[in-house]
Each structure stands twice: as structure tokens, then as C-alpha cells.
């Protein structure tokens, strides 16, 4: 079963027709083996672009949006989408499969460590990329440090 959000349905402005269309859509989803988790009304909104009604061929600029959160198989999703797209009361139907994110593991003790001792910071430092300018600065600094260290030169033997 795949979690699917069916939304963006244009329905007529009459409340009785709206209710009949929603009931018909819900029954059709249930008949095809879908489990309806929730039904949300997203309100009466403007469409992103002009649509044409199927019965009267008139342009539609705004509509009622509804979101059906359902669980259904892939085959049921294909058949319900084709049935919804041929329904005369619906201008646009979008079926969107939704994946649930995996729960993240808590790593509070790792976060509370100082940055120098964290494994994630060590991995970042090992795999970091350095630009040419940064590399030159590091080279010049180490060169200056090397020159500032007093060197002991070998003492030449005395001449006879």
C-alpha cells in the first residue's frame, strides 16, 4: 500500500452538488480498495491557469480544492485517477504518492562533545577541499614558522 494524496478537485459552487461529488469520490475510492485517512478542504482558490469544464466547455478560473489522504495500491491508483479525470464535476485531479521519512536517531551526546572530538567534524576536515589561496596562506605560514626556528649549523673544523 502506498500513501497517496488525491487533490485539486474542481466542484460546482452549490453546496448540495459539492457534497454529492465528495461522497461519490469517497465511495469510489473505497470501492477500489483505498483506505481514506482524512479529507481536507483547502478552500476556494484561484487556479494556476485557466481550465475548461467538461460539460459546458466554459473557462474556469477558481475552484474548490480538496485533499483526500489515502492508502492504496499502484493499480488502484491508476484506475481511480483515470475515473476521476473522466468525471464531469472534476476539472483537475492530481494523484501524488507520498513517502514517509525515516525516523532520525538521536545523537545528543555526540552533539554535546567539543567540536575537536566529534567524529563528524573529523570527517569534514579530512574530506575538505581547499582553494589555491588558502593553500598558499598555509604554506607561507609554515614557511615563516620554519624560518623563525633557530637552526644550529655545524661548526667547521679548525684550519691547520
UniProtKB/TrEMBL annotation:
One of its GO terms (molecular function) is rRNA binding. GO terms for cellular component: ribosome. Gene3D superfamilies: 3.30.70.60. One of its GO terms (biological process) is translation. InterPro entries: Ribosomal_bS6_sf, Transl_elong_EF1B/ribsomal_bS6. Coiled coil: none annotated. This is Uncharacterized protein. It comes from Haemonchus placei (Barber's pole worm).
Amino acid at each position: 500500500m502506498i500513501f497517496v494524496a488525491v487533490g485539486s478537485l474542481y466542484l460546482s459552487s452549490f453546496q448540495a452538488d459539492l457534497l454529492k461529488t465528495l461522497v461519490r469520490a469517497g465511495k469510489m475510492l473505497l470501492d477500489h480498495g483505498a483506505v481514506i485517512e482524512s479529507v481536507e478542504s483547502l478552500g476556494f482558490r484561484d487556479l494556476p491557469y485557466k481550465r475548461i469544464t467538461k460539460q459546458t466547455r466554459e473557462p474556469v478560473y477558481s475552484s474548490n480544492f480538496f485533499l483526500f489522504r489515502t492508502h492504496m495500491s499502484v493499480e488502484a491508483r491508476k484506475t481511480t485517477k483515470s475515473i476521476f479525470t473522466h468525471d464531469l464535476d472534476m476539472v483537475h485531479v492530481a494523484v501524488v504518492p507520498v513517502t514517509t521519512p525515516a525516523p532520525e536517531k538521536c545523537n545528543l551526546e555526540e552533539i554535546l562533545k567539543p567540536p575537536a572530538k566529534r567524529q563528524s567534524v573529523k570527517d569534514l576536515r579530512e574530506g575538505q577541499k581547499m582553494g589555491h589561496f588558502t593553500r598558499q596562506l598555509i604554506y607561507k605560514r609554515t614557511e615563516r614558522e620554519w624560518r623563525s626556528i633557530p637552526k644550529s649549523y655545524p661548526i667547521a673544523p679548525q684550519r691547520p
